[in-house]
Each structure stands twice: as structure tokens, then as C-alpha cells.
Amino acid sequence: RKSLMPLAAITTVLFLAVITRPEPEVSTKGGLETPMVPNLRANAEDIDAITIRQGNVSISIQRDAGQWHCASADGYPVERDRIRKLLVQLDQLERWEAKTQDRERHAAVDLDLSVEETQAIEVELFVSSDLVSHVVLGKRQWSPKSTFARLATDDQTFKCKGHVEVAVNPIGWLETNFCTLDRSGITQLTFGPMELVRSNGSSEDGQSTWELGEKNLDSVPEKALQLAKADLPGWPTRLTLEGVLRRDQHQWSTDVVVMTYAAQEGQLTVSIDLGEEEGSGAWCGLDFVPAPGQNIQPEWTRWPRWLYRLPDYRVTPIRQIQDALRSSSNLPDEGFTP
């Protein structure tokens, strides 16, 4: 028992040394082995706005009532963990080596802000509209991981320990998976006037088989049926977005496909606007009624307020099924206004 006591004491001392590293003003090594972004840890809980800029491209992320939003993505919510990751990486960016102070040499390490096509990334942190930190991130190296950086108000550059993952595209701050229904729980679906129901049997490879609903037995073209069976049952199980838009900002065209899914989670209605040029993707709206006893998921609460930009590869099978259905003169043209 006595032999364990010194080890416990040493462990405690080492832990305290890690979490109580000195601030730059008390360093005896000219600012080295100190945080690249001074006082970030002291301000972290109060930071309520972040601006990220690269040349003429900038994005703004803001906190309101405890929720982070990307103002550059129409105010779409940002997961708190993504903000936390950024702040932690900035806090852990430690000055290793002092490099050049010559502005003419900033471009060599991607820290020159005087040119429009700069590779430098600026990160500004705000507390109640007051700028508390402004750091410039430049070239990265990988063995070991390091980043060239400087404060925006100082020409002195440093080679720093670590990397900071910073997305300049607003979509990089969003959770791009916005719909993840469980395929095994889907029992029925409709595509315009066509209805498919899951049968009790399964195919040779163990996959569920789908059949036309009774009202469609003689009215659906074979091509449309085969395309629908192949593409529709798994279509909403993992949808990813390329953009977001508030619903009241979109003018729906007259070419809208409506699909419904009866799933274990609830009843999902999908509206896809096919009015744009083929090959460019499409805007998609989701309406959802949860099944009794379901735990409400965060993405479900967002669906009524937003439209999601689908990549073209998710829209192409929808267009193909729609075209195959339109080839049959027996099917009525059912219009829909979301």
C-alpha cells in the first residue's frame, strides 16, 4: 500500500501541471509553449459569435438562447459539439517556434491577408459584440501535426503544435444527415397515385419484397413499378443535404412529387420540387407525424421550418419514376401545392 502513495502523488502533480499551464505574460521563453490564442479558456463560456473568413468568403455563427445558428446558412442550427471542437482545438494550438516577423514573407506560410486569393483563414471570437480573439491560421504540416499562425494584430508568426479544423463553407458546420428512417420499419409508401405495400415474404437475398396496393393493380406501367420497387423503399433511410432554406423563402413550381412513408417512427410526407433543370438537384420538404410513444428527435422539430437541397443522385431516380408514370395515359395528373 505504501508503495502506491508516491505514484498517486506524482500523477496528481502531473495532472495539475497540464490543466494549469502558464498564460503568455508569465512565460519565460519569449511566449513559446503558450496558447496561440491568449485568454481563450477564460472567455470560452461567454463566446456568443464566431466569424470565419478566407479572402472575400466569410461565414457567421451566432448563439441565441443557448442554441448556435449559422447566419450564413439562413440561421440553420449548428450542433454545440462542433463549436466546442473548434474552441478546444484553438485552445490547444500551442506556440512551438517563433518564425518570421517580415510581412513580405507571410505569404510563404499562407498568413498574408493583403491579397484577395489568400489561403489564410481568419477566426474571430466575440463576446456580446466585443472582439476578444482574432487569430490567423496558415499552412499546415503533418509530421508532426503543426500549423503556422499569428494574431491578426501582430506580424510575428509562429509554428504551432496541432491542427484546427475550420470549414469556410457554411454547410461544413451543419449536420448534413437530415433524415434517417429505419428501412426495416417502413411498411407502406406512396408516390403520387402509386401505392406500394411490403409483403410478408422476402426475396432470395433476404430483402423485403414490395407489391402494388389494390387500387393500382391495373394502372401502373411496368417500368415505373420496377423503378419504384428498386429505389423507393430505402430512399429516406439516409438523406444528406447540400443546402438549406427557410420554407417561406421558396416559391414552389407546379412540378412537385409527393411521397409518403408509413414507418415505425411515424408518417413521413416528402415533397420534392422538380421544377429546376435536370441535373441540378432539387429542394425537398418534409412533414412528419410521430408514432405514439416515439422519442422526439431534434431533426424532426426542424423539418416543418426548412427545405433541404438534395444532391442530384438522390433526385435522379425520382425523376425517372415520375417520367415512367407520366408515360401512362391511364393515370390522372394529381397536382399538389406544399
Describe the structure.
The protein has 338 residues and is of the alpha+beta class. It is built from six helices and 19 strands. The protein has helices at 4-19, 40-43, 80-91, 222-231, 298-302, 312-326, and strands spanning 49-54, 57-64, 67-70, 76-78, 94-98, 121-127, 130-142, 145-151, 158-161, 177-179, 188-191, 194-202, 208-212, 239-240, 243-246, 256-262, 266-273, 282-290, 306-310. It has a nine-stranded antiparallel sheet with strand order 4-3-2-1-6-7-8-9-5. A hairpin with a 2-residue loop joins strand 2 and strand 3 (67-70).
Q: Strand portion, in percent?
A: 25-35%
Helix content: 10-25%
Largest sheet: spatial strand order: 4-3-2-1-6-7-8-9-5
- Class derived from helix and strand content: alpha+beta
- Average per-residue pLDDT, rounded, comes to 87
Number of helices: 6
What characteristic shape results from the CA principal axes?
elongated
Q: How many DSSP-defined strands?
A: 19
Set down the secondary structure blueprint.
Blueprint: H1 4-19, H2 40-43, E1 49-54, E2 57-64, E3 67-70, E4 76-78, H3 80-91, E5 94-98, E6 121-127, E7 130-142, E8 145-151, E9 158-161, E10 177-179, E11 188-191, E12 194-202, E13 208-212, H4 222-231, E14 239-240, E15 243-246, E16 256-262, E17 266-273, E18 282-290, H5 298-302, E19 306-310, H6 312-326
Antiparallel strand pairs: 1-2, 1-6, 2-3, 3-4, 5-9, 6-7, 7-8, 8-9, 10-14, 11-12, 11-16, 12-13, 15-19, 16-17, 17-18, 18-19
